[in-house]
Write a structure and sequence with these properties.
By secondary structure, the chain is mainly β. It has a domain at about 175-345: 3 Solenoid (Pectate Lyase C-like). The protein has 4 helices and 42 strands. A 9-stranded parallel sheet has the order 1-3-7-11-14-17-20-23-26. Helix 3 packs across helix 4 (about 340-345).
Length: about 350
């Protein structure tokens, strides 16, 4: 009878309170359009329960376990989840708004079009599952881990990666917006078609990363090092670099337009067809780099050094540089490798 009464209240769009859940058997229950308010779920197991368009307002889940459950277009608002686990569950089109989650684990679960906004998360683990088309938006995070999962077309907004970690995941089309990365030592990361817009990298060492086609719009890098990384066709638009090293990296067709760099080094890099338009560089170095067909239009180079670089057919339209090794070395090499352009410059 309690279960039948609960289903009836859901059909009538009535608020379900603490009294109405007493004695309800949630196992294999199909629940649609139910609204729970100020309900405490304590040490309950939900097995194969189907939740469709259900709402949890100011509810509390303590020591609960969800096994083989399905959540479709459900809403958690100002709800607390504590010491709870989701095993082999599916969440689609659902949201957690202003919620508090502590010691919550998702194992072998799928989250698609799920949004977590303006809440607090502590000791949150999502492992061996799928995180698709989903987002963390302005969530205060502590000890968050994504591990062994597929992450595709997702958003992490204003996340501090001292508290958020991604380990052994297949990452594609992620937007890391206004995130901060500090003291990271990453090896062999393969994050494809991701954007790190307005994000900050500090004291990071990134080795053998496959980051081609990634975007770093208005990102900043402080005392970072890229070693043997694939950054082909990456977009560093309006980015800032300070004491950054690119060592033996693939930078073909990479864009540094409108970027600003100082004390930055490019060593043994293949940067053919790269773009440096309207960028500014102070006391920076290019050593043994391939820069054929690169474009330096309206760039400003001051106090910088270039040695043993190939600038075949590079474009120098309105390049502004001071009387440093850049001017003495680069222009000389350009005229050696591109006699036609050297002649046109002399006639101009």
């Amino acid at each position: 009878m309690p279960t039948e009464k609960l289903l009836k209240l859901a059909r009538l769009n009535r608020i379900i309170s603490q009294e109405e859940i007493e004695g309800v058997a949630f196992g294999e229950l199909e629940l649609s359009m139910a609204t729970f308010q100020d309900v405490v779920f304590n040490a309950l197991t939900f097995s194969k329960t189907q939740f469709q368009q259900c709402t949890f307002l100011s509810c509390t889940f303590i020591d609960c376990q969800f096994v083989d459950c399905h959540f479709d277009t459900c809403t958690w608002h100002a709800t607390t989840l504590q010491n709870s686990q989701f095993d082999n569950c599916t969440l689609i089109g659902s949201s957690f708004a202003s919620c508090a989650q502590q010691n919550v684990t998702f194992e072998k679960s799928k989250a698609q079009r799920v949004a977590l906004t303006q809440g607090e998360i502590k000791s949150f683990t999502f492992k061996n599952g799928k995180w698709l088309d989903s987002a963390f938006m302005q969530v205060q995070s502590e000890s968050v881990l994504f591990a062994g999962s597929e992450m595709n077309n997702f958003v992490l907004n204003e996340s501090d990666f001292e508290q958020v970690n991604i380990e052994n995941c297949k990452v594609q089309r992620g937007l890391f917006l206004k995130c901060s990365f500090k003291d990271k030592d990453w090896n062999n990361l393969s994050w494809q078609a991701c954007s790190f817009n307005e994000s900050q990298f500090s004291n990071c060492v990134i080795t053998e990363a496959q980051w081609q086609t990634n975007n770093f719009i208005a990102a900043s890098f402080e005392k970072c090092q890229f070693n043997h990384c694939n950054l082909q066709q990456a977009l560093f638009l309006k980015a800032k670099f300070n004491q950054v090293v690119f060592n033996t990296c693939q930078l073909t067709e990479t864009i540094f337009n409108e970027s600003n760099g100082q004390h930055t080094r490019f060593e043994h890099a293949n940067a053919d067809k790269s773009l440096w338009q309207d960028s500014e560089w102070l006391t920076s170095t290019w050593l043994d780099c391939k820069l054929a067909f690169s474009d330096w239009s309206r760039a400003q180079i001051n106090g910088s050094t270039v040695k043993n670089c190939d600038f075949t057919a590079a474009n120098w339209h309105k390049l502004a540089e001071d009387n440093t090794l850049w001017k003495k070395n680069n222009k000389k090499m350009l005229r050696k490798t591109d006699e036609l352009q050297a002649k046109s410059e002399a006639e101009a």
